[in-house]
Amino acid sequence: MLRAGAKLEPLRLWRSFFYVPGDAEKKIAKMAKLASDIVERRDLAKLQSHLPDAIVLDCEDGVAGSAKVAAREGIARTLRQDSFRPFRQALQRTLLVRINPLDTGLTEADLQVCVDQHDKLDHICLPKTESLDQLKWLADRIKGTGLLVIGMIESPEALLHMSHMCRGSILEGVPLRGFVFGSDDYCARLGVARSDSNVEVSYARKKFVNVCKSFGLTAIDMVDIDLHDTSAEKVTKNTRLGAQLGFDGKQLIHPKQIPIAHEAFSPREQSIDWSRRLLAEATQSGAGAFTFEGKMIDMPTMRQAENTLKKAQLLRGDGLNL
């Protein structure tokens, strides 16, 4: 099935979906400078270990109610300065703004900042996406900007409506790029507490990622909010599970989570080597379906191998404007 977006994008990395509060201007400036330094020094090692694939300038949960205006103004200044140009263009990473939900009375003002500076960012993240009507409302207001939409599924009702939202977005021309799973709000709506095992979101994660992938959309996994040093093993285990389930990346709230996500969502060297050999054999055989190293190979397997090599090229820095 075709992706629900209005334009075909080049392959992007989504391993780390990193939130920075809009009123934390020093943190925002630090991230922008890190990207600039990586480009200037061609420091690909630091690109892999320190810099997120997607930076989300946040107006919503990461910002106190009393600081909403300050966050919006801080994001506006950042976008006007175009300080993330090296991040977006040279490194081919993604800059987003997470606006406030539609029921807050803050959405229009947040969105106006994004529309005014639409050429300085890539996507808009809409929290508490509950219906196709909400997506259509947002699409109308960003029409002609080239901005794409990332929705956030944060309730059982939204999870049940996902397929309808995806189909409707295709029919209505909503530039939908993907979805983020908001596990904390989801659990609150279920009336259950988050546990270390995450059993309470097991069904939701599986359904969420299957809907996303059936429509060719990016799927971003739940956030882990425990930042104690002792939690690293737990976060690593949960992140690897997300990758195994089929997610493209994970929401992050602390820099020390970046290398964990990058390790989990990056193709392994063994997989890269196998994909390279498979595609070489396919070129030589010229057959639509064939046997390779004891396995039956068809077109879906070929596409998977091609995507693995494309991701590997981005990770190595091939094709980056350095």
Q: Indicate the percent of residues in helices.
A: 40-55%
Q: Beta-sheet strand percentage?
A: 5-15%
- Indicate the overall shape: globular
Total number of domains:
2
Number of strands: 10
CATH architecture classification of the largest domain: Alpha-Beta Barrel
CATH class designation of the largest domain: Alpha Beta
The main sheet orders its strands as 1-2-3-4-5-6-7-8
Quaternary class: single chain
Radius of gyration: 20 Å
Question: How many separate helices?
Answer: 13
What's the CATH topology name of the largest domain? TIM Barrel
Cα end-to-end separation: 35 Å
- Report the sheet with the most strands, covering strand number, pairing sense and barrel closure: 8 strands, parallel, barrel
CATH superfamily of the largest domain: Phosphoenolpyruvate-binding domains
Summary tags:
single chain; 322 residues; TIM Barrel; 2 domains; 8-stranded parallel β-barrel; two-stranded antiparallel ribbon; 13 helices; 49% helix; globular
Can you describe what's shown?
Residues 48-255 form the HpcH/HpaI aldolase/citrate lyase domain. Its cofactor is Mg(2+). GO terms for molecular function: metal ion binding. Mg(2+) binds at residues 154, 185. The chain is an alpha/beta fold and 322 residues long. It has 2 domains: 16-266, TIM Barrel (Alpha-Beta Barrel); 270-316, no CATH class. It is 49% helix and 14% strand. The chain contains 13 helices and 10 strands. The chain has helices at 25-41, 44-49, 68-81, 85-90, 107-116, 132-141, 156-172, 183-190, 202-214, 232-245, 258-265, 269-285, 299-316; strands spanning 16-21, 54-58, 94-98, 123-126, 148-153, 176-181, 218-221, 249-252, 290-292, 295-297. Strands 1-2-3-4-5-6-7-8 form an 8-stranded parallel β-barrel, surrounded by 6 helices. The chain has a two-stranded antiparallel sheet with strand order 9-10. Helix 3 (68-81) runs parallel beside helix 5. 41% of the residues are buried. The mean pLDDT is 92.
